[in-house]
Design a protein that fits this description.
186 residues; alpha+beta
Length: 186
């Protein structure tokens, strides 16, 4: 069974609760997302060991019952999850309370805005490649700062030097073609 099938009945129950709030549903990223005036508010989904609600601007929720967690501490800024292990944990009134607050926050315009990141720091081994090839350097400079940052983060996330070098060799043809690291997913 895949993850969605394991929790299908529970996710359907959460979606039924959400649908009683008047939010509109849309299919985004392959799943149902509930929106208010086109803004993502809440969704439900299943994972390997739990199913959950996630609130797109959950960082602004007061969380009176201490249910919300940051899915990836240090990476996820606004998104918050409410995880469930079984059907007995689904407390409809509390869920509705959170959803209503999320809707009020959207009405008030409480939206997390990404912070501008500082100057990207090119690792020495990649800078050396850029210095060696005028064509590569020009192609890299022609990329948007966002795409440049994606490439740098991809290189820097490798722990071993061999992996960094392997990744660098993989991305060079993509940079020369003007392709972003994750363009195929957009």
């Amino acid at each position: 069974m895949n993850r969605a099938e394991i929790w299908q009945d529970h996710i359907y129950r959460l979606q039924t609760i959400i649908e009683n709030t008047g939010l509109e549903s849309a299919i985004k990223w392959g799943g149902k997302v509930y929106t208010y005036k086109g803004k993502n508010v809440v969704s439900a989904g299943g994972f390997k060991n739990h199913f959950c609600l996630w609130f797109y601007n959950g960082v602004f929720l007061s969380d009176p019952y201490q249910k919300l967690i940051n899915a990836q501490e240090g990476k996820t800024k606004a998104l918050r999850h409410w995880r469930f292990q079984n059907a007995e944990e689904i407390e409809e009134e509390k869920i509705l309370e959170y959803i209503r607050e999320a809707i009020r926050n959207e009405e008030m315009g409480k939206v997390w805005k990404p912070e501008k990141s500082g100057e990207i720091e090119i690792p020495d081994y990649f800078q050396q490649k850029l210095d060696e090839s005028k064509e590569l350097n020009e192609a890299f400079e022609a990329l948007t700062p966002f795409k440049q940052k994606e490439y740098i983060e991809y290189l820097e996330s490798a722990k071993r030097e061999a992996t960094q070098i392997s990744r660098m060799e993989k991305i060079i043809p993509m940079i020369l073609e003007g392709i972003g690291l994750n363009d195929k997913y957009r």
